[in-house]
Amino acid sequence: MRPEASADPDLLEQVRRAAALVAERSTSVRLRPDRVGPYADSLLAEGVRSPDPADDGATDGPWTAGGDDPEQVAGRVLALDAVNFGSGWHPVVRKRLGASGARSMANGLAAWLGDEEGVTAGRLARLDTDTAHMLFDQPHDGGPVDELMGLFTVALNDLGQVVLDDHGGSFVAMVDAAGGSAASMAALLVEMPFFRDVSTYDDMEVPLLKRAQIVSADLHRAFGGVGPGRFDDLDRLTAFADNLVPHVLRVDGVLVYDDELLDRIDAGELLVAGSPEEVEIRALGVHAVECLRSALADRGHDVPSWHLDQVLWLRGGGPRYKAQPRHRARSVFY
User: Does this model's pTM top 0.85?
Assistant: First the structure.
């Protein structure tokens, strides 16, 4: 069931179906159906609603550094999402004062791409690991930090080379090739190995495609839903399978982890990327958001999964969620 690089919107349905099948078979993580309705009610009580298209407008973010030329903005979004992974390494990376690991990495790349040279496909394709260490402000350690900088270099090289080879060196042309479809955008991106987020679970392949999907949402936010930020099927995106949204849902009682798994996470043990329990956590996060979306629809509110993901991800920055460890795995997918 490997997702094919085509405009077939079933690519996104493959993610939904696979997540639901994992939820049926899961042994270490389970959804509490009795908690879905009350949790949906609590979200409505907090004012969660479907985003109003009339409120669309380019939002602040790391992609705003360096001006508002469409080519530069599209390039920064794509480059930032190309390295939107590494949470398993964040405990050992050097962080900027007051910033998380993810924000430290994003700010370093944004500053580099926002200089006078700007973002070009050639610049990404030529990036070397020494430059990666410099722009992300990371020391050479002969270990995990060097490993992450090497992976970031490969990810940015791959993006730059694909844009050069297939899209005439233009990031906007790459976005345009998706034809205003988030499903097609994801299909273009999974041609690059680090975007091909597919795990094997039991006897099936499970596509979760976190970063291949989040690109369209980030372009939408960066461009205010117009031009390169317009995707007519944005509401078909799933939640973006990472390690924070499932953690929020677990802390809030929508998901339950078995004691052995929870003990390992609390002890700071790294899970193996692609292991059954790691796939279950991510897939159950996606499935739980789909269940919440359905419950909200039953209450008269069509809240897209990608918007619910953002709500829960932002919630995860609160003290209650930071006080408890979340799972970590060294993966190029989140």
Answer: yes
